[in-house]
Write a structure and sequence with these properties.
This protein is about 30% helix and about 30% strand. It has about 290 residues and is an alpha+beta fold. The strands form three sheets. The chain has a four-stranded antiparallel beta sheet, covered by helices on one side. A four-stranded mixed beta sheet has the order 6-7-8-11. The longest helix has 24 residues.
Amino acid sequence: MLNPLRQSIMGHLFTVPACVMEVDILEFKVPMENNKTLFVWGIQPSHTEAHIYDRLHRVFSSFGPLYLLKVCPNAPLSPPGFYALIKFYSAAQASKAQRQTDGRSLFQDSPVKVRLSSKQTPHFMSDSSKLLSHARCVDLANNCLGFNGWTSDIITLKELTDEDEGVEQEEEEGGDGERTLRFGCLLQLSFPSHGQMARASAVVEERFICTGPDVLLQRRCKLQKVVREKALAQAFSTVLFILLGNGKVMVEVKQTSDQLLPEESEGILQVNEFTHVEDEWEEDEEWDLTVS
């Protein structure tokens, strides 16, 4: 699916000196590949778990943005101490971190061992495109581009109602009772320095027991925030960051058949996914302890 885009990327890179031709592509989805996960063990019990987390984060985040870092105590039958699992967004950055930290003491007297996970990812997970949450999208974009490297603008944000106004009116007059709220948002994501733009939409719904106008107002405010965040995450899902060997970042947007052109999208809310607010964005998947 990315072959045409990769050809376009390589076309851009022909103007870059050969010494920086090494590239890596970051997608705004949960990293599932084993070559992005590091396993660190041999951590002494001389520091608290919180201190170890802080020191490991300082060391490994210097190689690139981290999706997750987890510090755990050794199993009961093992010697006292800790191990850590670290997941990068970038396979190249994970590999570089492994090479430069394995066998180093880092923050303790004895060296630690650092290995890449080697367990094969199941086929049904290898093609996973689970989107990042809004917060992780923002963190990753800020980490790679800086706080002024991108902007987002709401084109449309509105409450969606039933076409039957009689039913709507009856619900409004009824006051207390079970209610359903539905909001839709169309949003534009822009990267001014790179001349790239993406648009996406989202719809969220919540059913709840309304006990008064204050509850209704709170729920409306909550859904407006949730649908904005959902639309932004959907927009980021079409974006690729190309990391060049010289530390620079290029931005490309994946073109899809249902993507709206700017002149076509005014006043239109195109929905690709419908979400209930109870739906969870993402859960930390079970950690893979097999290493190479």
